[in-house]
Recover the amino acids of this structure.
């Protein structure tokens, strides 16, 4: 249940600054997402936090730097690499080995193996594991010491939809127990459902940190959408009042710089007939592309990078995501791709709720087994309302 | 440190290559001992050797106390040493290891201790088997104090190879590279330097042949010769004493280990 304080983290490789003066907090009881384009320095930051790389700055866990922790696995669990184990050492032996280093009893090894859904393959060699099973074993190592803090680099990488769903529920449950969870991911839709706070980096520097909702509200994709009879007049009058107006491909006007009450009022004043008036909220993805568009390290020559640029301002071209009408442009409605935080997501469903994909909680799903899921040991001290049995393990691959 | 030791003890016991390396080292040495025991017991001893003492040593050590048969087990122990650290880089487990045990000196020290203990146990088996064969096959074998020095230096040689292998892996951070280095140095590099400097000293008559005394692997090899002067002086009149040979060998081992340890402790994981 540690407060993580990172202060002035910097790291250069040769002449290249990978991380520059990064400072942020991760507070207990929350999942903090760590976002940034490829090469932004996320993994490097995590290595610095764990005292694995030599750099500048300090990271403390309730005031103590990692390398001074006694039995660190009992306080901070981490997964940095995709398959950090010897291919022919049995999964259970791998865990026992790490447990031995921190005086963690072997009974706990059995617990975490079951926790991550690898109970059936505990005695198998990891070389037979799929990427997702490898990730689960990595998570098992992170959970070994029942730590108050988790630092995970791309833990959802390679997990199937059930696995992603399971991971999300587990992390939210762990955060609900008062732990600090710091997790990087490229799956923004996933992050939107999982994280409460964000740390966003680009080119090694901090772009934003704080509550996710605050971050999203900064996006230019937040707009008032209106469909009116006389769009020309409306546009002219809106611009005269310093609002930015963009005509969407479907003919709607996307307005920033004026709230929906005033837009509606203006239409009324002008006597313009309104067919539709709504608020469009940006998705995390849109906010992210907005914020990191200029800091992307490896900009694709087509597509992604340009889309990021398209969000640069409301006056710019409309090639971007979401502008086509298909992606969450209805206010208060589900974004088909990502969904809003606290709203129903595309495939996963709300934590504690079950999306269409996964079958009913506690019931036999498509190809899973009755869900051992996350949650038996240890019982959460205070329930946060996230369901524990909503998660499932895909027993066939395990 | 106890945590690191427990970790390492578990590590070495849970990969098959530990057992394979030891088994191969033991089996190969045993095979040679057996062949020697069979052939020499039938031969006329006094032609080739000064005494039954030396024949006993020769067979117990599978020929390592003579100049012609290399220490077959040493490369296996070197590979074991390489793997103690090299596996971590090969399979990307070093970050997980150092996350569990942030004290890098403790990690490396534990690896060293466990590795040495494992190799010692393995050598103990080898030597006991060697003595058993000798006792069975040789008429009137002599297991006296004369055995102690060659046996100790044989043990040191094997342990030194293991430790140097570990140092090389920590230095190079690459398992394959470290194995290649650990094998080519004693088997290729030193013999070439040895041959070239002897050839030079013979043609120029200079003292460059003395430099061969500084080759650590050769020095370690020489230290188990019995009788030392007779064999070590072969082809080179200016061979240092047996004590100097032992020191040169261990200096070489310590140098490699120190370089590897410095890299392991100082560099990014
Ligand atoms: N060991 C290294 N040696 C040299 N440069 C490195 C090393 N590790 C990382 N870098 C550089 O540092 C920068 C940050 O890399 P890092 O892996 O931390 O990014 P990241 O945000 O984790 O990226 P990704 O999203 O692709 O995982 C990159 O430019 C990378 O090339
Ligand atoms: Mg990364």
């Amino acid at each position: 249940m540690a407060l993580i304080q990172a202060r002035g983290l910097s790291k250069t490789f040769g002449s290249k600054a990978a991380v520059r003066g990064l400072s942020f907090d991760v507070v207990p009881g929350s999942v903090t997402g760590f976002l940034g384009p490829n090469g932004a320095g996320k993994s490097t930051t995590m290595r610095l936090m764990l005292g694995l790389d030599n750099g500048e700055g300090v990271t403390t866990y309730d005031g103590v730097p990692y390398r001074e922790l006694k039995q660190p696995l009992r306080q901070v669990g981490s997964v940095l690499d995709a398959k950090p184990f010897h291919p022919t050492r049995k999964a259970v032996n791998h865990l026992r080995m790490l447990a031995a280093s921190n005086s963690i009893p072997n009974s706990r090894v059995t617990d975490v193996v079951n926790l991550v859904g690898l109970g059936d393959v505990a005695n198998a060699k990891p070389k037979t594991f799929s990427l997702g099973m490898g990730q689960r074993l990595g998570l098992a190592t992170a959970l070994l010491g029942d730590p108050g803090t988790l630092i995970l680099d791309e833990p959802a990488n390679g997990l199937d939809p059930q696995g992603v769903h399971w991971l999300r529920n587990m992390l939210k449950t762990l955060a609900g127990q008062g732990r600090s969870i710091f997790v990087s991911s490229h799956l923004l839709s996933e992050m939107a459902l999982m994280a409460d706070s964000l740390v966003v980096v680009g080119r090694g520097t901090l772009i934003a940190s704080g509550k996710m909702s605050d971050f999203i509200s900064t996006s230019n994709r937040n707009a008032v959408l209106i469909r009116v009879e006389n769009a020309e007049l409306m546009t002219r009058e809106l611009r005269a009042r310093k609002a930015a107006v963009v005509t969407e491909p479907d003919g709607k006007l996307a307005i920033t710089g004026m709230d929906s009450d005033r837009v509606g009022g203006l239409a009324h004043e002008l006597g313009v007939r309104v067919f539709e008036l709504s608020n469009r909220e940006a998705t995390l993805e849109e906010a992210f592309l907005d914020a990191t568009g200029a800091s992307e390290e490896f900009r694709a020559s087509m597509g992604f990078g340009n889309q990021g640029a398209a969000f640069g301002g409301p006056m710019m071209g409309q090639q971007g995501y979401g502008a086509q009408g298909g992606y969450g442009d209805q206010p208060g409605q589900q974004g088909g791709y990502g969904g809003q935080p606290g709203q129903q997501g595309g495939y996963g469903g709300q934590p504690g709720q079950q999306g269409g994909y996964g079958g009913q909680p506690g019931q036999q799903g498509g190809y899973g087994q009755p869900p051992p899921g996350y949650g038996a040991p240890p019982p959460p001290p205070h329930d946060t309302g996230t369901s524990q049995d909503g998660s499932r393990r895909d027993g066939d691959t395990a | 440190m106890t945590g690191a030791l427990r970790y390492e003890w578990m590590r070495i016991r849970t990969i098959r290559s530990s057992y394979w390396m030891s088994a191969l080292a033991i089996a190969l040495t045993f095979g040679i001992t057996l062949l020697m025991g069979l052939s020499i017991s039938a031969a006329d001893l006094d032609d080739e050797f000064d005494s039954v003492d030396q024949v006993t040593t020769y067979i117990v050590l599978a020929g390592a106390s003579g100049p012609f048969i290399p220490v077959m087990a040493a490369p296996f122990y070197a590979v074991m040493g390489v793997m103690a650290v090299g596996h971590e880089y090969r399979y990307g487990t070093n970050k997980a290891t150092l996350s569990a045990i942030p004290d890098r000196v403790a990690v490396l020290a534990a690896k060293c201790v466990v590795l040495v203990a494992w190799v010692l146990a393995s050598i103990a088996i080898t030597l006991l088997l060697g003595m058993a064969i000798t006792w069975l096959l040789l008429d009137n074998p002599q297991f006296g104090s004369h055995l102690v020095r060659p046996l100790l230096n044989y043990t040191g040689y094997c342990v030194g190879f293991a430790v140097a292998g570990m140092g090389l892996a920590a230095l190079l951070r690459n398992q394959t590279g470290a194995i290649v280095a650990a094998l080519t140095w004693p088997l290729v590099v030193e013999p070439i330097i040895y041959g070239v400097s002897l050839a030079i000293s013979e043609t120029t008559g200079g003292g460059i042949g003395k430099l061969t005394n500084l080759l650590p692997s050769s020095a370690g090899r020489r230290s188990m010769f019995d009788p030392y002067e007779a064999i070590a002086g072969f082809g080179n009149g200016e061979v240092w004493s047996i004590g100097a040979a032992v020191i040169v060998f261990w200096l070489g081992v310590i140098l490699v280990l120190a370089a590897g340890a410095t890299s392991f402790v100082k560099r990014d994981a």
Summary: Chain B touches chain A at residues 3-4, 6-7, 9-11, 14-16, 87, 91-93, 95-96, 98-103, 266-269 (CB under 8 Å). Chain B is about 75% helix and 0% strand. The pocket of adenosine-5'-triphosphate (ligand 1) is lined by residues A 13, 18, 36, 38-44, 297 (CB under 6 Å). Residues 72 and 78 of chain B are 11 Å apart (CA to CA).
